[in-house]
Every structure is written in C-alpha cells, then in structure tokens.
Amino acid sequence: VTIGLWGAPGSGKTAYLAALPQAVISTDGLAGKWVIIPNNEVSEEVMITWSHQLINERAFPRPTPLGAVTELSWHFVGDLAGSRYTRRARFRRRAAAESQFDLDLIDVSGEAFGHNPGEQNVSAEIAAGALDHLARARGLIYLFDPITERNRQFAAQYMNRTLIKLARRVKEEGRLFGQHLPHYIAVCVTKFDDKEVFGRARDAGLVNYGPDGMPRVLDGQAEALFDTICEGAFWPEQRTDMHGGARWVRDQLRKYFHPDRIRYYAISSIGYKRPLGWTQEAGRPGFRFNPDDFSNVVVQEGTPKILGPVEPVNVLEPLVDLHMKIDGWV
Fold first, then answer.
1. Count of Cβ atoms closer than 10 Å to residue 48 Cβ
2. Tally: H helices and E strands in the chain
3. Cβ distance 311 to 278 under 8 Å?
C-alpha cells in the first residue's frame, strides 16, 4: 500500500510518522493491535532515531531539511480480533482475523508542495518526486494545522499547484474516478492537544471522551471541526476566512476527491499529560481529566519539550482505515 503524506510546512508530517510506532502501543484496540517492522535499513534507523528523540530526549523530531528525501517502507502486522473491522462469523461470533500490509511513503519538507518550490530552495527533482509519489499512492493523508493556518494562512499555497498537477497526471493515465481523483484520503486536523485548539473545540461542543476517559473528537464530528475552522468561526478574534484560503482548501478537497473516499480526523502526535495515578480502568468521561491542565508540552528556553509519555491520539486510525478501504475490508 503506497500512502502519500501531504501538508504545508509545519503541519506535523514528520511528527506524525515518528508517532506511528508509539501509536501501536497506546491504541485502545478498536483499530486492531498492530506491530510495525521496518523493511530496510533506512526505515530501521529512522524508527530508532525518532523513538529516541520522543522518549529519551522528550523532543519533537527535527523538521525534514529542504533537500532531504527519506524513503520509508514499514511492514504492518495486525490482529483485528475485537476491533471494529472484525467480520462476523456465523451465529454472530467474532472470527479471529489478521491483516498485513507494507506501507511505502516518503518524508519530504512541505515546501516541495508549494507554489514555486524552486524559490524555496527545493530542487525540481525533489518536487517532481514528491508529486510522483502522490500520483502513485492509493491513499493520501493530508495534514491541516489550525494553529499555523491561523497565524500564517498559507495552506492554500501548498495545495493549489499540487492538486492541479496531480489531476492532470491522473487524467493522462486514464485513472480518474468519474470526475474525481481515484485516491482515498484522510483529512487530519493536527495538534488537537494544543490548549487553544482543544479549548475552542470544547466550546463548540465537539469534544467527547474515549473509552480511556481521555478527550477526543469523534470521527463523526471531525468534519464539523474542520468545517468550523475553515469557515472562520473557530478563531473569532482572528478569522481564518478573511482571504478565503482555509475555506478554499476545504472546497478543493471536496471537489477533487469523491465524498465516499474522504474521512476526517482530529489527531495529536503526542497526546495529553496523564494525571498522577491515572489508570485506564479508572478512566471514564471527565474523570480526573483537568481541561485547564492537560498539555503534554512545555516551552523551555524557546524550545518545546515533551512532559510525559507519548500516547498519540487518532494517529494510527487514519492509516489503518485507508488500508482497510483500499483492501476492500470496509
């Protein structure tokens, strides 16, 4: 399964990839229980380095340099017993199920998707390679950072050229799905653990609690969160729709991809700070969770540091959902 990872600079692409090995540990099992095994030496070294940075250094992975292209290949083995994907056997008893897939993707800087990559010191070769990878991919993970979009409003700049070139490539290859691109796509609102993002979502009535007692945006409400951000109502003191960029991003996604092939998620690559003495068995809606003191990040001398264990929220799910869709499970 070739998956394309796409987003503006700073949207959290490298952090998302680094969080995947941690996400298979902290999953609640609804997406299955997975193990990730690297397929080559580069993927092995990257997994070791990123895990060391997150766990031992309590630091976020370094941003991907402009001239770097990291080709990754990981093997996923999953036990789907008891997950939401388990097919029902006769007499409604759940059948044990195993799923395996190879994930091939590349990690490049977001500038490769920009309006004019050359002006940002991204070579034509790297920009073309990034587009080639998206074109070959069966599924796409698109990361949208609400904080960066509020402050810089440039998500549209890193979508326009990519979508137009991608549509032409697919059309020339005869792979259009009706009038749409053939890809399945997971649209992920990142940094949900940020105090401001969480607070606004909570005020909008979009925050619920998972079986572990920790807050999250349910998949059915993630699209409403994305809509609220793109319409400009999410940040009332600084509207993100003043020049229409975020709304344009949303509308382009809906124009180019078939509605049955788009799903939305609110994700966090590091998760929340766990209350002292917290256990999953003790967790229940609102129990011990302090909405005024949950951030798992503190800024020290201008550098963000991770406070506690990294327990990603909704990081594994978009990837597994894409695999299941592409593989015909759901």
1. 12
2. 9, 11
3. no
Q: What is the mean pLDDT of the chain?
A: 85
CA distances from 223 to 59, 106, 231, 250, 253 (A): 30, 27, 12, 10, 12
Residue 82 in this model has a pLDDT that exceeds 70:
yes
DSSP 231-297: HT-SSTTS-TTSSSHHHHHHHHHHHHB-GGGEEEEE-BSS--PPPTT--TTT--TTSS--TTS--SE
pLDDT of 91 reads 42
Per the CB < 8 A criterion, the answer to whether 7 and 110 are in contact is yes
Which residues, at least 6 apart from 328, have a Cβ–Cβ distance to it below 8 Å? none
- The residue with tokens 């264990």 is 309
Dihedral sign for Cα atoms in the order 266, 225, 181, 142: negative
The token duo for 169 is 């490539």
Compute, in degrees rounded to 10, the torsion defined by CA atoms 198, 204, 207, 208: 160
For 83-126, how does the pLDDT look when each residue is reduced to its tens digit (9 = 90+)? 888 754 344 444 457 888 888 888 887 888 878 777 777 788 88
Mean pLDDT of 38-51: 94
In this predicted model, what pLDDT tens digit does every residue of 158-217 receive, in sequence order? 899 899 999 999 999 999 999 999 999 999 999 999 888 988 998 889 988 776 667 888
255 vs 286, residue with greater confidence? 255
In whole angstroms, what is the distance from residue 229 CA to residue 25 CA? 31
DSSP 110: G
Map residue 84 onto helix, strand or coil: coil
* Of residues 152, 173, 146, 158, the one with CA closest to residue 267: 146
